[in-house]
Specification:
With about 325 residues, the chain is of the alpha/beta class. It contains nine helices and 15 strands. Helix 7 crosses helix 9. The mean pLDDT is about 95.
Length: about 325
């Protein structure tokens, strides 16, 4: 099978830490080109990770005839601009989450994708990890009964005034950076949209971003809650509670890539730990994205899901501003 040549926009720490090595082990794609506004930085990374081509700028990368697809891990406020430019050059895009700054941007990206016929996929990697696939199957087959509630905790401590995640104009803050996961999880597991949301945020006194955001999502028959923070001890966990049991995903998002992952399942028959082989969710995601392109299949993460997630994020933000329940718009 042909391997797709992936072009990477920017030299982010996220790319170096979580993407560069996994892509060297994928079956369907490899990193072929990289561009940065600091060429020397791009050249250094290209040397470190054996990337054949360094482009002078983003424009040269997205228009290069040998690049098959684009990975866009740029700051949130640049997602729409450079994804749309890549689509207009005929390049499919795997764009980091959240897809845009708001639902309107996500819809604009979808409109360009529909007009050009070039696909876009939001890079929610966790969905491709086998522990998440197994969890979803346990729920689908009624192993823990009807879902009563889901709670997601996700936090880290980032006091840096120069970090882009603390820049409000760049789409920083807890809700956008990690709250998008907490909103995606119940939508993914329940396969439905919430009816209304209630949220509260605490704003950082210097950065102006939300440093703590808590939310409640009403799905009718089930509820989902979350707390996300950029100023707390690094921590993450998802608890799923049903009428006949529960599931705990201990490291749901940044799972280790060198040791097996574990979830705990509790039912009337007792408690058991389910272990999964060493997996890299990012590599699995890139392979699924590339396989869909090679075979002319639909994207495994449809754009409708990305737009739906942005819609809930917008509504959470509105609820936090006015301090009351807000219904989800169609």
């Amino acid at each position: 099978m042909k391997k797709l040549k992936i072009g990477v926009l920017g030299v982010s720490n996220h790319f170096i830490k979580r993407i560069a090595l996994p892509l060297q082990k994928t079956s369907n794609c490899h990193i072929y080109a990289i561009a940065s506004r600091q060429r020397l930085k791009a050249e250094s990374v290209a040397d470190d990770f054996n990337i054949p081509l360094v482009c002078n700028n983003y424009e040269d990368l997205i228009s290069h005839p040998d690049v098959d697809a684009i990975y866009n891990p740029l700051p949130n406020h640049l997602h729409a601009e450079w994804t749309i430019k890549a689509l207009e050059q005929g390049k499919p895009v795997l764009c980091e989450k959240p897809l845009g700054m708001d639902e309107a941007e996500a819809k604009k990206m979808a409109d360009v994708s529909n007009i050009t016929g070039i696909p876009v996929m939001e890079a929610f990697m966790y969905k491709f990890h086998p522990m998440w696939q197994h969890t979803r199957n346990l729920i689908k087959t009624n192993q823990i009964g009807n879902i009563s509630y889901i709670h997601t905790s996700f936090s880290y401590n980032n006091p840096s005034e120069t970090n882009i995640r603390n820049n409000k104009d760049f789409g920083g803050g807890a809700l956008m950076d990690i709250g998008c996961y907490a909103i995606s999880v119940p939508r993914f597991l329940l396969d439905k949209e919430p009816l209304r949301v209630l949220a509260q945020s605490i704003t950082h006194p210097d950065f102006g971003t939300d440093m703590h955001t808590s939310g409640l999502l009403d799905f009718g028959s089930a509820r989902a809650s979350f707390h996300v923070s950029t100023m707390s001890e690094p921590f993450q966990k998802v608890d799923i509670v049903g009428t006949a049991g529960s599931i705990t995903i201990h490291i749901p998002f940044n799972s280790y890539v060198d040791v097996p992952s574990t979830i705990t399942v509790n039912t009337g028959q007792g408690s058991r730990d389910v272990n999964f082989p060493v997996s890299d969710a990012y590599g699995l995601m890139f392979d699924a994205f590339a396989k869909a392109l090679i075979n002319g299949e639909k994207m495994p993460n449809p754009l409708s899901d990305a737009i739906g997630n942005m819609n809930v994020i917008d509504t959470i933000r509105k609820s936090a501003e006015i301090g009351s329940w807000v219904s989800i718009s169609d």
